[in-house]
Design goal:
The structure is a homodimer of 482-residue chains. Chain A folds into 2 domains: 1-30 and 69-84 and 360-482, Aspartate Aminotransferase, domain 1 (Alpha-Beta Complex), CATH 3.90.1150; 101-345, Type I PLP-dependent aspartate aminotransferase-like (Major domain) (Aspartate Aminotransferase, domain 2). The radius of gyration of chain A is 24 Å and the shape is globular. Chain A has 482 residues and is of the alpha/beta class. In chain A, helix 5 packs parallel to helix 13, helix 6 packs across helix 8 and helix 14 crosses helix 15. The first copy, chain A, contains 15 helices and 11 strands. In chain A, the strands form 2 sheets. A 7-stranded mixed sheet of chain A has the order 1-7-6-5-4-2-3, with helices on both faces. A 4-stranded antiparallel sheet of chain A has the order 8-9-11-10. Chain A has helices at 3-23, 37-41, 53-64, 86-98, 109-125, 140-156, 159-163, 182-189, 210-222, 245-255, 292-295, 310-317, 348-383, 412-425, 453-471, and strands at residues 133-137, 171-175, 197-199, 226-233, 258-262, 287-290, 303-307, 387-389, 397-402, 432-436, 439-445. The interface between A and B is large, with 163 and 162 residues.
Amino acid sequence: MPSADLRRHGHELIDWIADYLDGLAERPVLSPVRPGQVHQALPVEAPRLGEPLETIREDFERLIVPALAHWNHPRFFAYFNSSSSGPAILAELLAAALNVNTMLWKTGPAATELEQVVLGWLRALLGLPDGFRGWLYEGGSSSTLHALAAARQRALGLGLREGGLYQAPRLRVYASPQTHTSVDKALMTLGLGLGALRRVAVDSDHRMRVDALREAVAQDRRAGLWPCCVVATLGSTSCTAIDPIAPTARLCEAEGVWLHVDAAHGGALALLPERREDFAGWEGADSIVVNPHKWLMVPLDASVLYTRHPDVLRQAFSLVPAYLETREQHQVEDAMDYGITLGRRFRALKLWFTLRYFGQEGLQVRLREHLRLAQEVARRVDAHPLMERVAPVPMSTVCLRARHPRIAGGEQDAFNRRWLEAINATGRLFLSPTELDGRFVLRFVISGLRTQAHHVDEAWQTMDLTLGELLGCTLDRGPTVR
Amino acid sequence: MPSADLRRHGHELIDWIADYLDGLAERPVLSPVRPGQVHQALPVEAPRLGEPLETIREDFERLIVPALAHWNHPRFFAYFNSSSSGPAILAELLAAALNVNTMLWKTGPAATELEQVVLGWLRALLGLPDGFRGWLYEGGSSSTLHALAAARQRALGLGLREGGLYQAPRLRVYASPQTHTSVDKALMTLGLGLGALRRVAVDSDHRMRVDALREAVAQDRRAGLWPCCVVATLGSTSCTAIDPIAPTARLCEAEGVWLHVDAAHGGALALLPERREDFAGWEGADSIVVNPHKWLMVPLDASVLYTRHPDVLRQAFSLVPAYLETREQHQVEDAMDYGITLGRRFRALKLWFTLRYFGQEGLQVRLREHLRLAQEVARRVDAHPLMERVAPVPMSTVCLRARHPRIAGGEQDAFNRRWLEAINATGRLFLSPTELDGRFVLRFVISGLRTQAHHVDEAWQTMDLTLGELLGCTLDRGPTVR
């Protein structure tokens, strides 16, 4: 593309993005598009001749943008949201232009070193000691796969590389029913199978019970199985339950079992000194995943896996063919030695831009505001005659249900499903579901960079109104979010 | 970031990028930076208070950019280059602003459908039939891991998900010594172990020998092993060797063995009708990897895995917890069901922009020019009294060595290493090494979007001059690239 065109289109698209972000609140969060609608509107073949960028942009604005879920929308309260901050958007633009592949130190010296520097910064912000080294991966699922591969590597030793699992003793991995399914997928991928996973009972707040864990490990040892890894979660996906990390770490240490901590979403809260007690003891973990692309204002994709055993991770993944040898390879760390992928984007750039632009305090202010807003939503749910809160709110996720004396017990799930669909159909907000204690539950997650009190209030009004309409009656709205 | 600031910085950065790309040829391709230099120049801690973007940008330009390898540089001839075209850079900017997570159809309907549409376009451009479905992954290594997981899944059936590999028969995977190490890494990751890999002999052009493959499979069957997968490569990493795909596909079909084709780099050439014969028969493969981020002008990361068995891939990876259920899940394809990762960037956007902006013919013109320039380099190497070409040039990669009667046979590798280091130290071009037939070899790969005849000529002059200096004599330069 001629450089004059790149400038012109670039300037126009920057303005388009600024307008898009400014106007997000006016858009429906979720598009009302039907399955197949976009597909049908697009040609079935690539063009033979090149097209002007104007035409492509027109189609982008006309066909693509209105048919998306808007993850940066201030009323996106589904899943765990991922926000793209302004500085991170600009960093991604630069990364695409530089197009550095960080597979080797040599193929991007500054990119490789910046990754280590920035992950060192984040490690310190999280209150983790020096001994942890980190690398950036595509997402939490990928980080967890690498962590479990390292745990397997430590349990089975060097023979694993050559011999695989055929002769291996039966490994066991422990996790609560609230643990993210990325653990299940990792076990399938690694050839350990879902059968290797032992579910450990939780308490009434969905936290893993350490006594049950201890008993499970002992039982397995008696049965000749090899306890390999415990996955503890600090901020579970359904309800941000916080597993008791200190006693779990002590147990793992005593048992020689790898402790992997999934703090993909919740880890961000370790930036707050007043929340450190939930994390006390996590420095005893063997590996920890924290996703900057969840609650640290960095767009997809950027997940960090920290480990105290980089040598083990390296043993699980390092292979250096002749075409990847460099003169510097024994003086430097080549990122390709610590994972599956070879081609790696320059992900550290957006994290660097974001941490510097906001600073520690800027991030803390935003996290605290999310926590405050979530407590306010929790209070409103508690005060509402036709809603119930079904889990504690240790982070910024509120789990709730509608209830009404006229709805029979067996129909409450179906009613709540209808309520969720009705809420999302308004386009005014986006909530996602989960299941807790066998019941269908709505999750209200506040972690978006652009979410302010009035957005939460507007969302609440819509939820309340929708419930009223669904119940065929009008209900008192309750107080306004301050 | 206030929207006025986003506009101002955005416009300035667009201009910076245009200037950067315009001025790339004047920069050294490889930075002369020493290991640790960037690390030491950066603060050890994140700032407590936010910093202005101006300061961050200054550091970016002063500390980061001069210490990179410039992958978009027109004289980057190392590895397999990855180019970022103008339209793709702009698409990445938009993707970062939208920040759509394409894990589910619902969380990005247009993004999910655009991925299928664009991968359908590319499939047709490559001459592959309808039956192939594709998904975008992080890179070739990740695509290959998913392909081998699918092959394993088909061989072992549903019991694998639960039971893992413990009770499984011994699987065998076949590949030539030229096959990319991503296959080795995948076998380690999947728990099959490097021992599962059987190396199949190659002919003098480094192409897998089908007779040797047939014999290896038969031998393994007699030994009670289970032939599971053959990996054939169309464009090997060292020297772009093209395995004979049609007879391999027939053998795999007859044997009921999964055929995975690694065309991560070389697949792009299937866009050229005159090169289709190298690909004839690849429609019989069970899975194929092609990386748009290699030779299709799309920046990192974007790798496509096509398969005729999406159901098997799904069986290997699908798991739907309650928090990811959607009303639409039975009407649509959710990308998370086809892979390890959950959080997925909107990678299809840059591929869509690029295919439309260049059009089929625009891409063909560039590929043909790369092929022409590589033939010219090959001719010059052949004509040079002190160089030898050590492999055929079926694509745009030339493998060469220096030779001189005064250098003893045992010292030729060391001399060539010194030559490569001397070439790269000039900063005028970047070549990378490999090993062929046990000898150290230099690779000259022409696949960059911005590479023109005069860049190749300048690189050639530098190589020649460096060799002359190293040999302590001045040599005839040979003809100019036309």
